[in-house]
Design a protein that fits this description.
It holds the Pfam family NAD_binding_2. This protein has 291 residues and is α/β, with parallel strands linked by helices. The chain is built from 13 helices and 8 strands. The model has no long low-confidence stretch (mean pLDDT 96). Bound molecules: NADPH dihydro-nicotinamide-adenine-dinucleotide phosphate (NDP).
Length: 291
Amino acid sequence: PTGNITVLGLGAMGSAVAARLRATGYATTVWNRTAAKTQPHTAAGSNAAATVPDAVDAGDIVIVVLLDHRSVREHLEPAADRLRGKVVVNLTTTTPGEARATAAWAADHGIAYLDGAVMAVPSMIGTPEARLLYSGDENAYAIAEPALAALGGAEYSGADAGLASLKDTALLAAMDLMLLGQLQAVAMMRTVGVPAAETAGEAEAWLAAMLPHGKEIAAIIDGGAYDTGGQSVDFDRRGLASIVTASREQGVSAQLLEPHLRLLDELSATGRGASDWPRIIDRLTIPKQES
Ligand code: NDP
């Protein structure tokens, strides 16, 4: 491949990215706040730059893998003039709002900005199992795509720079609640001496059997009528109340389950107890403040 790529940040993820680009044949220039971390990379054939502006000058594409939004802005802002006309791909984990703010800043400075979200751990970089989401400047994606394809499965989500982070955090939210649910099961079964591993095994099979229902729930939500006659809000309330009581009987806190029950109670109290239970999504959407 042709082109020079700069990698800012050589933590676990930045190092994996730089190594993979190098292995693919790109000329790479690296920078890291703690300069010692550039040593293995220069030994393997990368150039090291002493400052961010020098690193930026060396690359057509600048890949940023720092800690957070703040560290990204701290180091990109002083180099704004040197970044003009370049493609910046920010793989640092940020929120959708932070991604949009950096995209607006980049647009003000004539920088083609792509925001990325890495759905992989460093050891997966360069394998098809790594999924990397991108959003922002479409032209920047077209330019960077061949290099980004070397890092794993690359997906462009759209021109709104916040989309990649949004999808990443939405899927992480799904994972978080699912694994917390499994923890609740483990806590309940441990009260009678069942090891966590045993409950985790049972939960894995049970959750795998239940996951396909997610699409049926989605169809109800997309239909928008909540009148399919499937499990209702009131039916679900009774079921969940039993789970909450069972937990407490065993001396296990139900604090993870209580917010779910509260949402169902609110729906029932406003006369929607007979609706399909996925109507709960209405309670999750916070109305935008009138301005
Ligand atoms: P590390 O903790 O391994 O590395 C952090 C990097 O950020 C180092 O290069 C560090 O420099 C640099 N850094 C931190 N603060 C500053 C600062 N104020 N100014 C300049 N540089 C700074 O983290 P990772 O490499 O694992 O993560 C990097 C990004 O990748 C994060 O946003 C993370 O969320 C994301 N990511 C990581 C994944 C993972 O599994 N590791 C998975 C998906 C995303 P120094 O060496 O000088 O401390």
